[in-house]
Amino acid sequence: MRYLPHTGEEIASMLATVSCQSLEDLFASVPADCRMTTDWPLPAAKSEWELNDHFRRLAGAMPLGADAKVLVGAGSYHHHIPETVRSLAGRSEFLTAYTPYQPEMAQGTLQGIFEYQTLTARLLGMDTVNASMYDGASALAEALLMGLRIAKKKRRVAVSLAIHPQYRAVVRAYLQPGGFEVVELAVGEDGRTDLGGLVGLDDIAAVALQSPNFLGVIEDLESAGVVIHGVDALFISCFTEPLAYGLLKNPGRCGADIVCGEGQSFGIAQSFGGPGLGMFGCKQAFTRNLPGRLVGETKDLDGRRGYVLTLATREQHIRREKATSNICSNQGLCAMTAAIYMASLGGTGIRQLARLNYDKTRYLQEALVAAGARSPLAGPVFNEFVVEFPRDFRPAHQRLLAQNIVAGLELGALYPEWTGRYLFCVTETIDKQTMDTIAAEVRA
After folding, report:
1. Interval 298-316: pLDDT, tens
2. What's the first-to-final CA gap in the chain, in angstroms?
C-alpha cells in the first residue's frame, strides 16, 4: 500500500488550485516558533517480514499471552466469536462503511442496521431501539439526559452505586456541568441496590440501576420498577453483559422505560479496551426524545421496500439547540457485528450460551467456597461474583499469574471499603481445569 499515493503532478495541480507554490506555503499562517524544523526521529524503513518480526517481538514482551485465561469481566468480557461473525463482518461492504450520510445510496447498510434494531429490541424488550451509541457508559449518560428532557423541569437523577464505577464517572462528567444533581444509592448487604435512599427525595427525573450489576448480582428489576415509578421517576435499566438476557427476564418485561448498556459481548473482540457498542432502547411513548438515529422501513413510489433514516435528531440534521444528542454513532461496523452475532446464535443459541456461563460461574463459586473462601453477597449472580479469602490472596494471585491465569479483580481501588475482596468472571472460554487450578491455589 502507498501511504502517500499522490504523484508530483497531482500535488502541483492541487497547489495551483489554491494558489500555493509549495506544500510549505499551506502552513504559512502557522507561526515559525510553532513549527517543527528538525526531521522526525523515525527509524529506518522495514520490509514487510521485518515489520512482522518486530510486532511479534513486541507481542512477546507482554506479561500475558494470547492464550491466557482471564477471569476478569468488570464491563468487558471474553467470549468466543464464531467464525461466521468474523467472516461476514470482515466483508468490505461492512468493514469500509461508516455512517450513511447519503442514506438513499446505502440501502444495504441501512437494512443491516434495521435488523440490528429489531434483534436488540427483542433482546431488551423495548419498543424502539436506536442505531447505537459509542459505548455503554455514554449510553447511560445519554439515557439520563433523555430522562431529564422528558421530565422537563426536574434537575435531579439517582444512580446506583452498584453501577459500573466508570459509567458513573461518565455520568457525572455529562450532567454536573449542566447543573444537574446526581444522587447515588447505596448497595445493600445482598449486593442489590437499596432503594430506601429515594424516600424523601423529590424532583427525581430518573433512577438508573444495572442488572446484572458491577458486582455480578441480579437486581430485582420488577420490584425496583414499582418503587421508582412510585416516586414519579423514569426507570432506566443499564447493563454491561447483554448475554444475561438470554436467561433472565429482560428489562422491558420488568417495567423499564429506557434500557441501555454495552454490547461488546456480541461478537466484538476486547481489543485492549475498545471499541464498544452502546445499545439503547425505550418505550414507544419516548421515541421522539431518543438520542442518535433510527432506521425505518418504508416503500417507494413503486411499492418496493426501502430503508430510510428517520427521527435523526442530531446536530448534523437539525438546528444544534434542538438536537437530542451530538454523539457520533458507530453503526457502520460495531452494531452490524452485533447483529450478525445475534443472528448467528439465534434465540436458542443465546439462551444456551447464557446458561453455560451461569453454570460455569456457579461451579467456580462453589469450588472457591469449598476451598475456604466466602461469598459476602447473598444476591443471585450471573457470570460474575464477589469473594473474600481467609488470608491474603495476593501471593496466590501472583502464582496463578505465572501460570497465565488472571484470577479476578481486586475491588479496593474501585470500592475502598471492599479492599481484599475479588470480583471473578467466568465465561464459556474458561475450562474446568483452570477453575480447579484456582481452587487448588486457594486451598494450598
Report:
1. 998 899 998 888 876 555 5
2. 55
- 75: exposed, middle or buried (Cβ count in 10 Å: 0-12, 13-18, 19+): buried
- Show contacts of 103-112: CB within 8 Å, 24+ apart: 103/307, 103/308, 103/309, 104/308, 107/306, 107/307, 109/331, 109/332, 109/336, 110/295, 110/307, 110/308, 110/309, 111/307, 112/336, 112/339
Specify the CATH class of 83-342 in words: alpha beta
Predicted confidence at residue 243, as pLDDT, reads: 98
- Written out in words, the top-level CATH class of the domain with range 69-81+347-443 is alpha beta
* Whether the domain at 69-81+347-443 and the domain at 83-342 fall into the same CATH topology: no
Q: What are phi and psi of 275, to 5 degrees?
A: -80, 170
The per-residue pLDDT for range 225-247, each reduced to its tens digit, is 999 999 999 999 999 999 999 99
**DSSP for residue 287:** G
Cell of 137: 457508559
Which regions in the chain score pLDDT beneath 50?
1
Domain residue spans of the chain: 69-81+347-443, 83-342
3-state helix, strand, coil in the chain (%, to 5): 45, 15, 40
Distance, in Å, from the CA atom of 295 to the CA atom of 96, rounded to the nearest integer, reads 19
The pTM of the whole model exceeds 0.70 = yes
Interstrand relation of 204-210 and 278-282 (parallel, antiparallel or unpaired)? unpaired
The x, y and z cell numbers of residue 194, run together, are 437499596
The three-state secondary structure class of 344 is helix
Helices (H), 217-314: 221-230
